[in-house]
Write a structure and sequence with these properties.
With 433 residues, the chain is an alpha/beta fold. The chain is 42% helix and 17% strand. The chain folds into two domains: 218 residues, Rossmann fold; 153 residues, Response regulator (Rossmann fold, 3-Layer(aba) Sandwich).
């Protein structure tokens, strides 16, 4: 009897051991209960809701809210880890257009507010301040508003931040696109050769990179361009009289500047008041914004900008976005005409939600791994809005998109795309001076 009891006990030990091992086998039976799903996915953003860039910050916030509202009305984001749809919540802090505050507030969102994920902000100085914070806390940082190459690349051409993904192509590419378009017009005989260029740029990496791009084009196309005047200005400057007088004295027949939207409006209003005229006028990415056209009136005529996106693009996806945007801002009683300041952040929010769903998780590292896979146009996320139709991040550019631009000129009070050929809605018009 005693021997039979001992044998039975031994058998029970073996059986228990086998069952325990079976339970712990990966993919066979879960070792524990599913992690509890959060009531909402909290996404944080630090934006310039006041100060120099306050109006653009409002565009970004409005774009994020528009896309999040669409997702929430459909039931939320499906997260496989929890096997359910979870609504999104946006938390925005105002950095007052101050880089130091921008970095501090992003850290607060991550460490104090405990947001699940983040979205990037606007303007090179503010994004440059936020990027190291995102990197330090290993938070994927989708950047819809900073384009200067120095944010993305070190001096020796290596990727600066592994966690940042740039939604708009570089300022250097923007400047080169400007000159390539003008070269075509020179070859057609619509512009003189050489084109004598005056250039006024903001005193930041953004402005210096734009000027460097112009100078690269001068070297690339000998005999086509000559830079006869260059100057830098402070963001938020109010009086450009001295600079405009120097431009007038320089003998330039073209003016190619890199400026923020408020500075462009201020300078060009003074430009018109002084009766200046150049056959070619551009303010870098600025020029055909709806706000500027309304404020400047006839003075904006024939000014062109080289942009990452424009609402006059005839593609169906852009028309659909414009309709959604116009209805949304009207309902919110906001004066924000459709612009790239809305379209690109909207797609940034869509990309973040897509990455969550593809990862099946709200864990930052898993979302980051999904974003890293978008490393070429062919592997990118299809977009009916973004120029080029694909959201991807070029490793050689430090994780920055390298999509093409559209050149948009104000004609008869409306923005018209004049470059590249496959996107044109009108032909380029020089000023008659």
């Amino acid at each position: 009897m005693q021997r039979r009891t001992i044998l039975l006990a031994a058998v029970l030990v073996v059986v228990v051991s086998v069952v325990a091992a079976f339970v712990l086998l990966p993919g066979v039976i879960s070792p524990g209960p599913r992690r509890e799903a959060p009531k909402e996915i909290v996404v944080g953003a630090v934006l310039p809701m006041s100060g120099t860039h306050g109006r653009i910050g409002l565009y970004f916030k409005t774009a994020f809210e528009l896309y999040f509202d669409e997702v929430n009305r459909a039931g939320g984001v499906y997260v496989k880890e929890f096997d359910k749809r979870i609504p999104l919540k946006l938390v925005v802090l105002d950095d007052e257009s101050d880089p130091t505050k921008s970095a501090t507030l992003l850290e607060r969102l991550i460490t104090v507010e405990k947001v699940n994920l983040i979205l990037g902000g606007y303007s090179t100085p503010l994004v440059a301040a936020q990027a190291p914070v995102a990197e330090r806390y290993k938070m994927p940082y989708i950047n819809p508003g900073g384009a200067t190459s120095t944010i993305f690349l070190t001096e020796d051409g290596k990727r600066r931040y592994n966690y940042m993904f740039g939604m708009i192509a570089s300022i250097k590419q923007l400047a080169l696109t400007t000159m390539e378009m003008l070269k075509v017009e020179i070859d057609k005989g619509t512009l003189p050769k050489p084109l004598k260029v005056a250039s006024v740029n903001e005193n930041t990496d953004h402005g210096r990179e734009y000027l460097a791009g112009l100078k690269e084009a001068v070297r690339k196309y000998p005999g086509y361009f000559e830079i006869v005047y260059e100057a830098f200005h402070t963001i938020g400057e109010k009086d450009y009289t001295a600079i405009l007088s120097a431009i007038k004295a320089s003998g330039a027949n073209a003016m190619l500047n890199d400026m923020r939207l408020p500075d462009y409006i201020t300078m060009h209003r003074q430009y018109a008041a002084m009766g200046l005229c150049h056959i070619v006028v551009s303010y870098g990415p600025r020029g055909p914004e709806g706000t500027a056209i309304r404020e400047l009136g006839r003075a904006a005529e024939n000014v062109f900008g080289v942009q990452w996106w424009n609402p006059s693009d005839p593609r169906p996806g852009v028309r659909d976005f414009n309709a959604k945007w116009d209805a949304w801002v009207k309902a919110k009683n906001l004066d924000l005409p459709s612009d790239w300041f809305g379209a690109v952040p909207y797609e940034a929010a869509r990309l973040l939600v897509w990455a969550i769903e593809r990862a099946g998780s709200i864990e930052p590292e898993k979302v980051h791994s999904v974003l890293l896979q978008l490393n070429s146009p062919e592997k990118g996320l299809s977009s009916p809005i973004i120029v080029g139709g694909s959201i991807y991040f070029d490793e050689k550019a430090g994780g920055q998109i390298t999509n093409q631009f559209v050149v948009v000129q104000v004609q008869d009070g409306k923005p018209q795309i004049v470059w590249p050929r496959e996107s044109v809605t009108s032909t380029f018009r020089p000023n008659k001076c």
